[in-house]
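ARCHIVE CARD
CATEGORY: sequence design from structure
SOURCE FIELD: tokenized fold
FIELD CONTENT:
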């Protein structure tokens, strides 16, 4: 091991011991060893016992641990602390400018165990109430977390969409009248992807021009590669002739399974200037790009898929009454200005102490304010609702006499996420069977690239929703996109409506429905199957029938 690697082992040991509240004197000794060893000129592995002992600050204990690292490549004490610390918490230690003291506080007080969970908590404004955190500190941390995540190799679609569209604009300016379009995973609206792909019809000279402009690496005559700087995203530029555009788009856009299911060799001697022409030559129905995940199937729905303009209301919205960053008035006015007919205010319930959940007096105050706004904002309508925590036994937060006063209730799990599949499924079904549950919120609790979905029996959960007239949320927050789009066909088959909900904690968050719509289209969601595609009158009737 190098001196730097040995020193870093002591640095991490000190950090982990701090997380576990160990003796400060020992922690300082390991921190001092890190500072001393990282700049020691002679290779530590080549020093005698006497020479090691002569290094200032290296006592008997540290001396022994250095020998462990040199001889075995690991340190037993460090491995013990690593085994006691969630991997995501250890990863946080690698964020520059974010110390062990604050990580310990967030781990212990908020239960945050990964960078993704932490970034989600920051975006939900949950840190400002903690001692030592304020709005400025929270925003500074958000920037650090985004920088860190942007360099890890994979990206959420919503994380790179704006940069990708800006890049496409640049390429179009350089290519002028030549065909240019997204292709690959990005064109398919993959919810997680590792690069941006663009297809261009370009002459040899134009290919050279693009390569020079973007300082790209030439892979072959038909592909260039480079990276965007902010954020750092790999880009692949693909080239083809105009007469092969259709075939090439099919090859690049579809998943491996989709492409393998088509006999593309039959297109080799054909002119396929458009994808429509290519599909027709294959004697196959055209499939929208976002639906090309599985092997080609002629029954894939291409018509009447949900669109952004189809959404008439937003049904999962937080305000400053709990953990939102904007007031009730601001959220309602913004939703109205975006063209929505109605909004469902769903602040957190009382058990969500981490999010300043609402007690009865808070609810009564909010209901009074909603009544006044409804009188002045007609025909726009504000529904009195709540995001009720599903408790450990599947019961809903609040007593029946309170639950029955809401227009609708979103029931969501926010705690105890590590149940086995049977217990987690039973918990959700118990909540679904509660007569006051209207919508099941983010059913698996996943945070893309950060926290795995907890295991549930999706079929049993969807069947329970069908039996009890409960809708399921497709949480449109780009960190969640939960319910996964793969389960939409089964939900539609069972007659379960899908609510595309932004889970908005700010006015800007209301626009996250965009990402939910893209994911919903992948699953074939139609207007008829979308709960908040109902008009104001229709949605009001739906609430009243519950």
């Amino acid at each position: 091991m190098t001196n730097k690697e040995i020193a870093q082992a002591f640095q991490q040991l000190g950090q982990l011991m701090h997380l576990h509240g160990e003796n400060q004197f020992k922690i300082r000794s390991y921190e001092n060893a890190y500072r001393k060893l990282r700049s020691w000129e002679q290779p530590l592995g080549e020093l005698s016992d006497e020479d090691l002992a002569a290094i200032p600050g290296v006592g008997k204990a540290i001396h022994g641990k250095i020998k462990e690292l040199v001889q075995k490549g690991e340190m037993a004490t460090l491995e013990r602390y690593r085994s006691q610390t969630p991997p995501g918490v250890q990863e946080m230690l690698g964020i520059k400018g974010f110390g062990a003291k604050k990580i310990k506080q967030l781990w212990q007080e908020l239960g945050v165990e990964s960078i993704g969970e932490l970034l989600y908590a920051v975006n939900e404004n949950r840190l400002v109430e903690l001692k030592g955190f304020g709005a400025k500190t929270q925003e500074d941390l958000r920037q650090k977390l985004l920088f860190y995540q942007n360099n890890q190799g994979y990206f959420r679609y919503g994380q790179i969409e704006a940069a990708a569209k800006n890049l496409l604009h640049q390429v179009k300016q350089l290519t002028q009248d030549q065909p240019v379009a997204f292709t690959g995973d990005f064109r398919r609206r993959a919810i997680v992807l590792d690069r941006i792909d663009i297809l261009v019809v370009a002459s040899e000279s134009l290919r050279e021009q693009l390569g020079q402009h973007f300082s790209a690496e030439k892979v072959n005559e038909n592909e260039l590669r480079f990276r965007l700087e902010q954020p750092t995203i790999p880009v692949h530029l693909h080239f083809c002739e105009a007469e092969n555009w259709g075939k090439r788009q099919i090859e690049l856009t579809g998943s491996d399974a989709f492409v393998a299911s088509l006999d593309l060799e039959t297109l080799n001697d054909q002119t396929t200037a458009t994808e429509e022409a290519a599909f027709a030559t294959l004697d196959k129905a055209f499939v929208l790009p976002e639906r090309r995940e599985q092997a080609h199937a002629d029954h894939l729905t291409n018509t009447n898929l949900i669109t952004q303009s189809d959404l008439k209301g937003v049904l999962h919205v937080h305000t400053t009454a709990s953990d939102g960053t904007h007031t009730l008035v601001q959220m309602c006015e913004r939703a109205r200005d975006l063209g929505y007919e109605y909004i469902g205010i769903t602040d957190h319930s009382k058990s969500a102490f981490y999010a300043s959940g609402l007690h009865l007096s808070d609810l009564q105050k909010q209901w009074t304010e909603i009544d006044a706004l409804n009188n002045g904002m007609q025909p726009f309508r504000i529904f009195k609702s709540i995001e009720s925590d599903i408790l450990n036994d599947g019961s809903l937060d609040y007593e029946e006499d309170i639950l029955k006063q809401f227009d609708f209730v979103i029931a969501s799990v926010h705690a105890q996420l590590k149940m086995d599949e049977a217990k987690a499924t039973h918990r959700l079904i118990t909540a679904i069977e509660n007569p006051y549950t209207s919508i099941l919120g983010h059913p698996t609790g996943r945070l893309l690239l950060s926290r795995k979905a907890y295991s549930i029996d999706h079929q049993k959960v969807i069947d329970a929703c069908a039996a009890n007239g409960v809708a399921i949320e497709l949480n449109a927050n780009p960190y969640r996109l939960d319910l996964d789009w793969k389960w939409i066909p089964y939900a539609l088959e069972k007659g379960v409506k899908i609510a595309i909900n932004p889970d908005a904690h700010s006015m800007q968050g209301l626009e996250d429905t965009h990402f939910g719509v893209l994911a919903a289209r992948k699953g074939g969601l139609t207007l008829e199957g979308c709960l908040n595609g109902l008009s104001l009158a229709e949605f009001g009737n739906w609430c009243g029938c519950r």
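CARD ANNOTATION: The mean pLDDT is 93. The chain has 23 helices and 14 strands.
SHELF: design records, drawer C
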